[in-house]
Amino acid sequence: MAQSSRARARYTPWWLPTALILLLALCLVLLALLVMGRSTSVQVQSPGQQVADEGQRLHWKMVTTWPKNFPGLGLAPENFARLVEELSDGRLQITVHGANEIVPAMGVFGAVSSGSVQMGHGAAYYWKGKIPAAVFFTTVPFGMNAQELNGWLHYGGGMALWREAYAPFNLVPFAAGNTGVQMGGWFNKEINSIADIQGLKMRIPGLGGEVFTRAGGEAVNIPGGELYTALQSGVIDATEWVGPYNDLAFGFHQIAKYYYYPGWHEPGPTLEIIVNKDAYASLPADLQAVVEVAARAVNQDMLDEYTARNNAALEELVERHGVQLRAFPPAVLAEFKRQSATLYEEMSQKDPLFAKVYASYAAYLNAVRGYHALTEEAYFEAR
């Protein structure tokens, strides 16, 4: 045995142990460089990018001002969530919660602003108590229709003003739905003159409500899910909601006889998706683009749906349920319009942001009105 060991030692190259040590050291150096490289690549990425790169999924919550799955309005956020998941290949998943599931209908703005949830769906004019200028990003009396408002928001500077208004509340807004020109509302009595408005309690939000009050009525802001009971019990004498498609589903024809038009107070109401600014900033650029594209798609899709469904619903209301259609008398509309113009001027004097947004809105409306007189209006008359 001793002789065999001496023989092996005699034939083992003298440099082999040194080579093994050097090879081991080289492996350790390469391993250290690899770890440092991975650490550096992670440090330069945002949290959102890490999620995307690692193939993980983001799970967000969206709260809404509408009852869960309510036709039209309530389906828009559901469609948005589905589109986002499909376009992101499942990397961003959004669970939609209807009014009162997590927060009350009018608690959406605060919940998203605080970051307790990442997203919300509602209407900007609900928040006029916090931001008076917010009304312009939904609709205002005798203002733009859906086509005109979309043009102002996306190509006329409106969106930049909207985001400026919401920035102090840590929110990023997107247009996300439009019903088109609405109906004037449901009344338990005929409106033959402005005298019939005096003392009338009506659910009517936004600046339309303030104009209604100035004209002698009493505006009340009640969430959609409570309107039927309020009208039935006499808490209110009249209500507006949207138009035939939604109004038929709510069953207003069962408790109110007269259905008035046009919707002078809401000629083109845009709905909104609001995103917590910190949550939005955490997304990689491609997922931010997904959110924006999905919002634009839902914005148009809702208008398409209401255009297709309103007429059939109106025919059912009139022919099957005996609803009586009435046009607002010209003198009543003229008084509403006069009060609207006075209100805009007064609010502009009180609030610089309101004045800034109103100036942009009015300038765009005046310009596009002239063009539409030669195109849309002229074509309607010719047709």
Short structural summary:
By secondary structure, this protein is of the alpha/beta class.
From the structure above, extract its key features.
383 residues, alpha/beta, six-stranded mixed beta sheet, five-stranded mixed beta sheet, 15 helices, 13% strand, disordered N terminus
Biggest β-sheet: strands ordered side by side in the sheet:
7-6-8-5-9-11
Indicate the proportion of strand residues: 5-15%
End-to-end span in angstroms? 114 Å
Helix percent reads: 40-55%
> Biggest sheet: strands, sense, closure?
6 strands, mixed
Counting DSSP H or I runs of 4 or more residues, the number of helices is: 15
* Radius of gyration using CA atoms only: 30 Å
What does this structure look like?
The chain is an alpha/beta fold and 383 residues long. It is built from 15 helices and eleven strands. The protein has helices spanning 2-11, 16-43, 47-53, 75-87, 108-114, 146-155, 158-166, 206-214, 227-233, 244-250, 277-282, 285-320, 330-350, 352-374, 376-382, and strands at residues 58-64, 92-97, 119-122, 171-178, 185-187, 201-203, 218-220, 238-239, 258-261, 270-276, 324-327. Strands 7-6-8-5-9-11 form a six-stranded mixed β-sheet. The chain has a five-stranded mixed β-sheet with strand order 2-1-3-10-4, with helices on both faces. α8 (206-214) crosses α13. The longest helix is centred in the C-terminal third of the chain and has 36 residues, at 285-320.
